[in-house]
User: Which sequence fits this backbone?
């Protein structure tokens, strides 16, 4: 009799990470010793951080840190329960009210992580026989949430990335009697590209579809006062639900969704990722309240972020690098070769610049890239360092 297959065989057979480590070009899970915003410490070495999502540089702002400390003093380190039961404190309600006002929607609901937010929205609202219509390049958290909904009987269909003609083709095939939700990133996390929201809204109205926009990489970067993609196109009233995370511009941890009162109330009482998960910690919520206040009061931070990113983008384009199209805080440099991407990353790391390597299977073959992102708090010397090292190493490796 043949021995039954061991479930862990796939684990013992996985050698890719060890092989990359053996070549000295492993780009993941490097622990940061100290984080000062635009400069971080690895093993006692100072590196320019050109790979963080801390877009406005607020994670190390003294006001933000002080508010988190004060919240711990008042509420402790955890709420020790879900929002549904004993885990709601006054800070949660205050932040929900503030965010609803900021995004010009009726109501807001907080989640413990951005990842859980999609899982609270999509499987809760799109049920058996209904349709999720998803951009092929949506963030992995939206994909996971959509697959969860599939498990409950929902239908998942995808359209080609930011291709509104293909979106219409997909929408035309959905039965008229089936509910449908179009789900898209506002700013796509790999490329920094902005969704064609005006055309998406036009199609949603034509085919009676609801819209969810994940604005994780848009808030604080585009839109009036940093309000994100719907605000950028003056389409706030036409987007049903706007969701996002606190782990980027808001300098904290957690997630949120804003929308109509009745829809948010339905999610609040039916989303398993909310009901069965511990609530956001007081320190995390307090940090967001303070960053939101700073965003409202200091619009110059967003202007500086745009200026910094444009400076690097133009510098790299002038040098001959091929960049993914973007006007956001993300500047993605296409290398289009797996090992060359890893060696480029290693050389940058050794030279004092930290970026993110995007390789297979995370991206399609030929789309391997180095993703950089910038902060309002980067100084010109930091930006010049990034451009200089990219140019030097790019020439060495034959990228430019």
Assistant:
């Amino acid at each position: 009799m043949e021995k039954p297959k061991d479930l862990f065989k796939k684990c013992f057979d996985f050698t890719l990470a060890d092989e990359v480590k053996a070549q000295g070009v492993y780009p993941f899970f490097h622990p940061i010793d100290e984080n000062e915003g635009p400069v971080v410490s690895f093993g006692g070495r100072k590196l320019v951080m050109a790979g963080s999502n801390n877009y406005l540089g607020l994670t190390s702002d003294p006001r933000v840190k002080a508010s988190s400390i004060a919240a711990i003093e008042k509420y402790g380190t955890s709420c020790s329960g879900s929002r549904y039961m004993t885990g709601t404190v006054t800070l949660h309600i205050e932040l929900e009210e503030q965010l609803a006002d900021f995004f010009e929607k009726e109501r807001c609901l907080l989640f413990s992580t951005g990842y859980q937010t999609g899982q609270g929205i999509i499987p809760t609202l799109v049920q058996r026989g209904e349709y999720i219509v998803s951009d092929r390049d949506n963030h992995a958290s939206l994909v996971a949430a959509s697959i969860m909904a599939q498990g409950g009987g929902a239908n998942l269909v995808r359209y080609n990335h930011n291709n509104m003609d293909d979106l219409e083709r997909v929408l035309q095939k959905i039965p008229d009697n089936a509910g449908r939700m179009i789900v898209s990133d506002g700013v796509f996390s790999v490329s920094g590209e902005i969704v064609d929201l005006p055309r998406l809204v036009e199609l949603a109205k034509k085919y009676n579809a609801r819209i969810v926009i994940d604005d994780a990489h848009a808030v604080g970067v585009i839109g009036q006062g940093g309000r994100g993609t719907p605000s950028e196109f003056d389409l706030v009233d036409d987007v049903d639900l706007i969701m996002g995370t606190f782990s980027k511009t808001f300098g904290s941890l957690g997630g949120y969704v804003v929308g109509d009162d009745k829809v948010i109330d339905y999610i609040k009482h039916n989303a398993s990722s909310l009901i069965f998960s511990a609530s956001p910690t007081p320190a995390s919520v307090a940090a967001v309240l303070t960053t939101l206040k700073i965003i409202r009061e200091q619009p110059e931070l967003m202007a500086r972020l745009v200026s910094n990113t444009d400076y690097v983008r133009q510098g790299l384009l002038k040098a001959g690098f091929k960049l993914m199209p973007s006007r956001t805080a993300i500047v993605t440099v296409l290398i289009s070769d797996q090992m060359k991407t890893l060696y480029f990353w290693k050389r940058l790391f050794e030279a004092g610049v930290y970026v993110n390597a995007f390789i297979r299977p995370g991206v399609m073959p030929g789309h391997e890239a180095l993703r950089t992102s910038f902060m309002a708090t980067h100084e010109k010397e930091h930006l010049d360092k990034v451009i200089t090292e990219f140019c030097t190493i790019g020439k060495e490796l034959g990228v430019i």
Remarks:
- The longest helix spans residues 300-319.
